[in-house]
Amino acid sequence: MATESRGERRFHHPSALLHESVRRATFSSWKIPFLDPDELADAGFFYLRTADHVQCVMCQGIVGYWDPGDKPLQEHQKHFPNCQLISGVCTGNIPKNKAEDQHGQLFKLLDEYYYFRVHFTKPYIKMQSDSVNMLEGLGPSRPELNTTESRLCSFKRWPKDVDMKPEALAEAGFYSIGISDWVQCFHCAGGIFNWSSHDNPWHDHARLYPHCTFVRMQLGEEKVISFWENKTDAPGNQRSLKLNSEEAELVLSHPIAQRLVTMGLSKRSVRSAIVGRIEKHGLICRSVTEALELVFDQEEELRKKELKEMEERKKQEILNQKQKDSQEKLENMESVDLQQTNSNLHKDSTISHSEEVAEGSHDGSPFLSSSPEMNKLFQEVQDLRAKVTQVEKLLVCRCCQKEQVAVVFQPCSHLHLCTSCARPRDTCYTCNAVIRATLKPIISNK
């Protein structure tokens, strides 16, 4: 059998094998003439590039030593009868041949969206919880594999039929993910498969993932750009990363989504969770269980977010009310102070015109008897002014000492910096905790 065109060789995640078209691409070097690769891919298998061995994407079952007349689907059912893919259970499998119904439209959308993401976007890298560097693209996706020796250790089960040396791949930043000849970059997480003896790992790395910091540092900017500009693969159709409303609604027709709805989950939660998964990874869930966990995780995150926002609003309301009460009390005290002063001035005038009366009632004059009350009022005014000043200081940025605080860091919840001072930071100014997210509270001046 003649070697086929290898087509798209990039992948961002092993779950790409849920696409029958991706599984079919792994058979470009298949050499068994009596067994149709289309039938193997349709039955859920991808080529391991070891003899005639193939593996199921769902149950991980391996079948080999094929004989003429063998049917892939029948062999799959015979050896792995509990596999979800062939037992009628809802899975994330995306068939290559699409029907004209709603399911066919959805599978076509998922296929097109996957190839768009692989061609035009960077792999999604989940930040480590203890990562100091939270900015995208600055740190490696697998820092423990930052040496050629550590990456080379991942090739212990490298297929012998693959005519590409593990040393060359490891040197170019790749490690084996343990599936056929699939490798990923330890830094950018870019994946490549279907290797041949004519390939140059450095060249392919730069051509297919020109944004990779590791490749740019090793080869230099100009060389990477030259490889990228001379690439021969034709670009796919560009589109928005976000699914539009019609596409998001179409997602609900997927068997997994329908199963979750029949289990009692709201359509809104199911649609939001699965659409979010597709937009983040370019892939749908493998199984109902995985989708169920995804919905639960999202609802828990939303609940925590709403609770935190409610707490922040409550804190702000209390702060605003304290400011309002302090201001009103201060205004009332100043009004009382003014009235008392006017009253005393009137009394002074009366005393000046009635000196004898004033001298006769010196000990019991209303003016003097009110002096302790006046002192008490003055003290309350001073205390209130001090409290207002203290509150105003709390609302001033601790960094620039000029602007009003405007950003709440999460998860530490410190509200200590203005927008300008908070923007460039990735750790809290006060406690040095890593910033996972930010909130902008509503601070009223009234």
From TrEMBL:
Record GO biological process: negative regulation of apoptotic process; positive regulation of protein ubiquitination; regulation of cell cycle
SUPFAM superfamilies xref list: Inhibitor of apoptosis (IAP) repeat
Chain spans, region Disordered: 316-371
Gene Ontology molecular function, alphabetical: cysteine-type endopeptidase inhibitor activity involved in apoptotic process; ubiquitin protein ligase activity
Annotated organism of origin: Meganyctiphanes norvegica
Signal peptide coordinates: none
Record's protein name: Uncharacterized protein
PANTHER family: DEATH-ASSOCIATED INHIBITOR OF APOPTOSIS 2, INHIBITOR OF APOPTOSIS
Biased composition (Basic and acidic residues): 316-332, 345-362
GO cellular component annotations of the record: cytoplasm; nucleus
Lineage: Eukaryota, Metazoa, Ecdysozoa, Arthropoda, Crustacea
Pfam families tied to this protein: BIR, zf-C3HC4_3
